[in-house]
Amino acid sequence: MTKVALIGAGPCGLSFLRAIEQAEKKGEKVPEVVCFEKQEDWGGLWNYSWRTGSDQYGDPVPNSMYRYLWSNGPKECLEFADYSFDEHFGRPIPSFPPREVLYDYIVGRVKKGKSKDKIKFNTRVANIEFKNDKFDVSYQDKVNNEMSKETFDYVVVSSGHFSVPFIPEYKGMNSFPGRIMHSHDFRDAEEFRGKDVIVLGSSYSAEDVALQCNKYGAKSVTIGYRHNPMGFKWPKGMKEVHYLDKLEGKKAIFKDGTEQNADAIILCTGYLHHFPFIDESLKLKTHNRLYPPKLYKGVVWQDNHKMMYLGMQDQFHTFNMFDCQAWFARDVIMGKIKMPETKEIESDINKWVAMEEKLENPDQMIDFQTEYTKELHEMSDYPKIDFELIRTHFKEWEHHKVEDIMTYRNKSFSSPVTGSVAPVHHTPWETAMDDSMKTFLDQ
Ligand SMILES: Cc1cc2nc3c(=O)[nH]c(=O)nc-3n(C[C@H](O)[C@H](O)[C@H](O)COP(=O)(O)OP(=O)(O)OC[C@H]3O[C@@H](n4cnc5c(N)ncnc54)[C@H](O)[C@@H]3O)c2cc1C
Ligand SMILES: NC(=O)c1ccc[n+]([C@@H]2O[C@H](COP(=O)([O-])OP(=O)(O)OC[C@H]3O[C@@H](n4cnc5c(N)ncnc54)[C@H](OP(=O)(O)O)[C@@H]3O)[C@@H](O)[C@H]2O)c1
Asked: Residue 177 and which of 12, 68, 302, 350 are 20 to 30 A apart at CA?
């Protein structure tokens, strides 16, 4: 029987397990899957951990989630086609759920089946090599500190790419008397109450960590962008300035001449695609972009079609795109989708990469990833879902953010799966301090 090693039981890994289970339900002969997960439970980043740095076994903690995180896009845009929010919660719920609610939804779908039996928890993949037409996968049972090796026909990497922080250095950091941290280790904005905080970066982490600090009572929040400002209308106590030049004692001096006293610096400077466990010849090397090169249909490794990657793109679309990728990967492995000739693969990859390199604004990026996801969707039997509605939602959401960055999470959207319209949440995000699932669902 064909054997597949699946690395990681985060949303992407769970999509793949679900894809296998759905085929099995239809009576198809599916491959044997062994999923390796280095954490003690499933859910990936959504399996929140208070830990930062190393875990109790000395292994780096992959989690980058924080306590009061809420979805930064409408939940309707990430909805599973085969498991709607209405089905999981028994009724429509508001469009921007907090972390605990999304976690419940993600694992709720797989809890219904037997996928958990396929996962080896607390097990870290340490090495993957391709020899004699097979993959040798070496892994560590972290609890007993024991190494083992097994042979597989296929490898599907779903280990995520928002776990290993990129940490630049600025002049004066060594002698800065306050706290310096990366957003990867940010867990709770409460610790910055009454403090002057500097946030560096201009993407989603910078935006949301800065807003969190403001919401939980930081005295001031100054965002230093490098290339382009986010340009939102920031609330009182927040400003956005150009690039940190240096730190002098507690003073942060920016390229545009702004000087700001600082108690803490939070580096929201992104993450590295980091696969120390994969042999060089199989390893994806890319920065965070919408179409990493060398992946056919964004999934199959160009130089070895038995090696696959899920979710390695920068992401507007998430869970349903991961599903489309997982269904596609499954069907390639099961021989239902035939890989084309080398030349066709190359020109397909080049076509997408060239289109991606011309993208200029968020609307074009949304269009690009929607087209990519739609193309994948048509290649498998992943159930019907309205990607045109999702495209429209994403653009509307972008405009809501520009209108008012403090209120975009109070809006409501309609489901691309059931058509139901989300109720407006009982408390605006800005004043919703209790974001437990119980309170959120108590409509
Ligand atoms: C702070 C933050 C907030 C986000 N918020 C949102 C949001 O609101 N909405 C949204 O749609 N997306 C959000 N995302 C995007 C996020 O990428 C996806 O939601 C999703 O978690 C990606 O799933 P994944 O399976 O690719 O990776 P992950 O969730 O990172 O899961 C990867 C899994 O692989 C395991 N693993 C890694 N290496 C190994 C190894 N060597 N051996 C065994 N197991 C291994 C890890 O333990 C982990 O469980 C957010 C990301 C971050 C960083
Ligand atoms: N649910 C939520 O609310 C939430 C919150 C946080 C994160 N997320 C998710 O987390 C994922 C990762 O987002 P991310 O923002 O961490 O990473 P990211 O999107 O890859 O952005 C990295 C940022 O780092 C900046 N940067 C890199 N090097 C820098 C330097 N030397 N100095 C200053 N800035 C530098 C980049 O700036 P340039 O553009 O100038 O290169 C860019 O703005 C996304 O999927 C996002 O949706 C979600």
From this structure: 68
